[in-house]
Amino acid sequence: METFLLFLMVGLLAQAVDGSLGMAYGVVSNTVLLAVGVPPATASATVHAAEVFTTGASASSHILHKNVTWSLWVPLVIAGVIGGALGAYVLAGIDGDVIKPFILAYLTILGIWIVLRGFRDSQPRNIPGFWGAPLGLIGGFMDAIGGGGWGPTATTALVGAGKDPRRAIGTVNAAEFFVTVAISATFVWALVTGHWEDAGALQDHAAAVGGLIVGGLIAAPFAGWIAKTVPTRTLTFVVGGLIILLAGFQALQLFDVIP
Predict the structure, then answer these.
(1) pLDDT at residue 202, rounded to an integer
(2) Measured in whole angstroms, how far is the alpha carbon of residue 165 from the centre of its chain?
């Protein structure tokens, strides 16, 4: 029960931030899972199992509110599914102790990137519409490898390119559902075919999955209110700082500085 309540709070916080920034649910959830000792592949699979539910609710909301640019959504989905499936397959076949340092480096870079966004006031620039394909491919791959990264990659690039933030967040979130399903399906396939040797560890984290799902679904309806009342820059600093601190904690554990 304690594990369920802990990850309910993690899921609630992560989804609340994700709903207002268009990113961070996967990154925050995955970072916390790694910090408590969950293997990288299991952590990513756990986060994506929960995201199947939370991204579905988020996508439906954005579609109902007409926040989706469909011409950009199509290449994002197609490329994101390919990149996500490839990343999940690669991650499932690598020993957790080997990949964890790279995941920590990736999460640290993401955290610094998000914090820097809080300081920047960049002028928007235009990019060709077909950039949605490489953006989706990279975002999907990084999302599977790090258990989060779709939003920081896709949403940030689109907003930085001059896309209306509301439509950027809506389009990326609506595409994320399909990317998440593809990543989760790849983990299941890896489990069934024996490609994923550590898959048995998933049984030990059912409470974490349940907590992430329930917390995310509770927070989803309040995302709009949070976006209106809390300054975006404040949320940006909070998310980036939290990721850097948690990644640093994991690094200290990895190098046996702390137990």
Answers:
(1) 59
(2) 18
Is residue 202 a contact partner of residue 35, using CB atoms and an 8 Å limit? no
- CA-nearest of 187, 180, 95 to 139 is 180
Q: Note the maximum CA span of the chain.
A: 50
Question: Cα–Cα distance between 57 and 174 in angstroms, integer?
Answer: 9
Q: Could you give the C-alpha distances from 21 to 72, 119, 136, 154, in angstroms and in order?
A: 19, 15, 18, 12
What pLDDT band is residue 223 in, cutting at 50, 70 and 90?
low
Q: How long, in residues, is the chain?
A: 259
Instruction: Say yes or no to pLDDT of 69 above 90.
Output: no
Instruction: Say if residues 190 and 93 touch (Cβ distance below 8 Å).
Output: yes
C-alpha 148/C-alpha 7 separation (Å) is 16
Q: Which residue has the higher pLDDT, 181 or 60?
A: 181
Long-range contacts of 137-140 (CB under 8 A, 24+ apart): 137/79, 137/80, 137/82, 137/83, 138/83, 139/76, 139/80, 139/83, 139/179, 140/79, 140/80, 140/81, 140/82, 140/83, 140/84, 140/85, 140/86, 140/87, 140/179, 140/182, 140/183
> Is the predicted pLDDT of residue 123 greater than 60, yes or no?
no
